[in-house]
């Protein structure tokens, strides 16, 4: 049985690539230095995979920024606006063009915007969106895939397996930049270039080639299905001897099962972690020659593999089609897991024994192979670890389980409906029309971050740290009062991150030192690990919110992160449904909400910026997810009296298809990101007749630009044309933690003036 890996983390176990590329961008290291570091990471990755006995070792899965962008460069899909990068400055090389496309280019008298970036399916990885024009041409432009093949071959002394994004998925990942054509119609022009590449790889000695077609797990139109049929028939016709491995992941093939098994490829990869049920389905349909690559080791999470379950799948497949047609693999590329658990020296050893990062997952693939050959001790050892986890007192807290099991609809429902609450709240707060507020955080300056670093190192005492944070908080309160903001925030100076801050205070969470996962380019995130039943041993934010409220006569909003966002931005336990974990977190947040209310906080914001990204890949599955996600939010928000105002905040750009559920969240006020779309997003709310109050963001916080008063007034006029004036709040798009103070102060001063101007008009 061949052991097959789909891809490996490329940032390096110590984030070497992040550091090197940032230095290269800053001009402090040379291009050659960058390449040397990038090569070293690859060599190390290949070595690790070879040591783990992986037979099909991927190459070209490495990327300096993003694999989709690599593909665009490989295929010559380079928007015209980047032409001057190479022509204007003869010093620039392909890699500079590449980074210009990724990050924009402001040098040599040029000012070229970056390409768009968006989330890779339902992961937190972001890719660079290919841009297609109506008469899009394709040609082999970048030689990276060939170079990397040679490099890997040299390093390994065996034949590596090049990884390419398949032609159909590549087109579907992109965007038409002109009207009047459908990107999928480009397939006929694109496939010949893929064939050219495959032939060249074959000449270099390639045997297996991996073609990633994750879109096979999504809803496909007739044209898209035809594109698959066309592309793979052509590839088979022109490259009959290359061994094609078609990979799918993140969901089941579902209705596309027959299509997928019918394509003339040598092997088909299935994600059996996300979608174990599809194995039987595929085995029923599988034609005589097709090999199956079984994705049994979870590439999306950090838990030790349950060998009994994996061996079950492998045995099922072997019984049906024979061992020589079965490969053992991770569910998807290991890109989405941190590099190496061995580097985590501070994790409780009992819990560490339940975990596996990328390096350990390679070993799991190897061990599964050995178990299939009869190594029973390995299986027994795994059974022991898995059952230790299943029974551990660290995970299982009866009282938490009972409380979550006892949640009723009443727990997820406010006492009165919105209209009644709104009346009570208006009488209580007496806010002007167009009340002004902000989303929570104020600039996290170096000074503030330093404080936390010093506290961690022990050079600053907790009292000293607290005093500094109090000082910053009071400063922020005073100037919010000075410029005349109506509802204040405390500024979140005490928080490192909106999820980490809560995770650190909740039971059931742990934090890694090096558990970095690439988010985009050089940006990595270090998600917390939810390993057990979640509870709130003590108040989390009451101290800071009541301190802030005590220092002003004005209304001070309490500030919390919602259960779905905490879940979404963590590695979640896989031994119970996500909805159950969400409910436990919701109860913890609910207790905090109630505690804030008891401490005299009259408005409480529960941020849920990640509700949308949790949506399943297929629309048919959306309702089920949204039902429990909305309910989790409602559980967290419904413990308070009618007179307490619950805010929520979301920052993304599509509400149309989930507006009904957003309304079901039943927040009194929602603040959203709208400025970049010029309030277009509000139409979804208007069309739906969204019942509650809305703060459409009037300025983009992603840029230091200070918008003029008139600009914001005109946005408010647009909003007023769409929504009842009495329901409109005035606020920025999102929190201000990434901004500097001068622009923040200037922009918010303008924002308050804009609100005053709007009050004059209406
Ligand atoms: N309250 C958070 C902040 O202002 C919200 C951040 C977010 O929406 N991502 O920073
Ligand atoms: Zn936001």
From TrEMBL:
It comes from Mucilaginibacter pankratovii. It holds the Pfam family Meth_synt_1. The gene is metE. CDD domains: CIMS_C_terminal_like, CIMS_N_terminal_like. Residues 434-756 form the Cobalamin-independent methionine synthase MetE C-terminal/archaeal domain. L-homocysteine binds at residues 439-441, 492, 607. Belongs to the vitamin-B12 independent methionine synthase family. L-methionine binds at residues 439-441, 492, 607. The keyword Amino-acid biosynthesis applies. Its EC number is 2.1.1.14. GO terms for biological process: methylation. It comes from the Bacteria. Zn(2+) binds at residues 649, 651, 673, 734. NCBIfam families: met_syn_B12ind, PRK05222.1. Its cofactor is Zn(2+). The active site is at 702 (proton donor). 5-methyltetrahydropteroyltri-L-glutamate binds at residues 15-18, 119, 523-524, 569, 613. This is 5-methyltetrahydropteroyltriglutamate--homocysteine methyltransferase.
């Amino acid at each position: 049985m061949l052991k097959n890996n789909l891809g490996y983390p490329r940032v390096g176990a110590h984030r070497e690539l992040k550091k090197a590329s940032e230095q290269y961008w800053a001009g402090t290291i040379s291009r050659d230095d960058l390449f040397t570091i990038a090569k070293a990471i690859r060599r190390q990755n290949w070595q690790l995979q070879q040591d783990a006995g992986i037979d099909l070792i991927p190459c070209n899965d490495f990327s300096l920024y993003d694999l989709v962008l690599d593909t665009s460069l490989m295929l010559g899909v380079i928007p015209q606006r980047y032409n001057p990068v190479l022509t204007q400055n003869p010093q620039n090389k392909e890699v500079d063009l590449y980074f210009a496309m990724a990050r924009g280019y402001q040098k040599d008298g040029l000012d070229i915007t970056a390409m768009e970036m968006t989330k890779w399916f339902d992961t937190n990885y972001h890719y660079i969106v290919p841009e297609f024009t109506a008469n899009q041409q394709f040609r082999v432009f970048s030689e990276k895939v060939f170079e990397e093949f040679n490099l890997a071959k040299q390093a390994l002394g065996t034949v590596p397996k090049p990884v390419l994004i398949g032609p159909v998925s590549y087109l579907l990942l992109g965007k038409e930049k002109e009207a009047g054509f459908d990107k999928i119609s480009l397939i006929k022009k694109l496939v010949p270039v893929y064939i050219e590449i495959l032939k060249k790889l074959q000449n270099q000695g390639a045997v297996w080639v991996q073609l990633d077609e994750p879109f096979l797990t999504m809803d496909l139109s007739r044209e898209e299905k035809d594109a698959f049929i066309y592309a793979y028939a052509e590839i088979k016709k022109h490259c009959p001897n290359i061994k094609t491995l078609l990979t799918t992941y993140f969901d089941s093939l579902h209705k596309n099962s027959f299509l997928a098994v019918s394509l003339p490829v040598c092997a088909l990869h299935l994600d059996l972690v996300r979608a174990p049920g599809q194995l039987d389905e595929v085995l029923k349909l599988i034609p005589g020659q097709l090999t199956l690559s079984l994705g049994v080791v979870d590439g999306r999470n950090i838990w030790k593999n349950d060998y009994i379950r994996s061996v079950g799948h492998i045995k099922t497949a072997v019984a049906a089609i024979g061992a020589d047609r079965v490969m053992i693999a991770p569910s998807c590329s290991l890109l989405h897991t941190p590099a190496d658990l061995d580097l985590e020296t501070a994790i409780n050893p009992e819990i560490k024994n339940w975990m596996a990062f990328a390096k350990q997952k390679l070993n799991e693939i190897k061990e599964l192979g050995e178990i299939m050959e009869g190594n029973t001790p390995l299986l027994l050892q795994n059974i022991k670890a898995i059952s230790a986890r299943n029974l551990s007192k660290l995970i299982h807290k009866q009282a938490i389980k009972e409380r979550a099991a006892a949640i009723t609809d009443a727990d997820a429902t406010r006492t009165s409906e919105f209209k009644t609450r709104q009346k009570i709240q208006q009488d209580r707060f007496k806010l002007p029309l167009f009340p002004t507020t902000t989303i929570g955080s104020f600039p996290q300056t170096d000074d503030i971050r330093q404080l936390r670093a010093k506290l961690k190192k022990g050079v600053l005492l907790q009292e000293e740290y607290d005093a500094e944070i109090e000082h910053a908080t009071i400063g922020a309160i005073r100037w919010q009062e000075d410029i005349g903001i109506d509802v204040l925030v405390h500024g979140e100076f005490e928080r490192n991150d909106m999820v980490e801050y809560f995770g650190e205070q909740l039971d059931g969470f742990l934090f890694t030192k090096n558990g970095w996962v690439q988010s985009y380019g050089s940006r990595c995130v270090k998600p917390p690990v939810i390993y057990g039943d979640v509870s709130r041993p003590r108040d989390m934010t009451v101290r800071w919110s009541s301190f802030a409220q005590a220092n002003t006569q004005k209304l001070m909003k309490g500030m919390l992160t919602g259960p779905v966002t905490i879940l979404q931005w963590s590695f979640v336990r896989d031994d119970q449904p996500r909805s159950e974990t969400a409910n436990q977190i919701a109860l913890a947040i609910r207790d905090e909400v109630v505690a804030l209310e008891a401490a005299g906080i009259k408005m409480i914001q529960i941020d849920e910026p990640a509700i949308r990204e949790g949506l399943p890949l297929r629309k048919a599955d959306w309702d089920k997810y949204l039902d429990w996600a909305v309910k989790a939010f409602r559980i967290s928000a419904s413990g308070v009296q009618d007179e307490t105002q619950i805010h929520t905040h979301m920052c993304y750009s599509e509400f149309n298809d989930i507006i009904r559920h957003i309304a079901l969240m039943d927040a009194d006020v929602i603040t959203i990101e709208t400025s970049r779309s010029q309030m277009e997003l509000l139409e979804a709310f208007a069309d739906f007749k969204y019942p509650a109050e809305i703060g459409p963001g009037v300025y983009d916080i992603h840029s230091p630009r200070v918008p003029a008063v008139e600009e914001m007034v005109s946005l408010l006029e647009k909003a007023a044309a769409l929504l009842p004036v009495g329901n409109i709040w005035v606020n920025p798009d999102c929190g201000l933690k990434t901004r500097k103070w001068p622009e923040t102060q200037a922009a918010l001063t303008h924002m308050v003036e804009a609100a005053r101007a709007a009050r004059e008009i209406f």
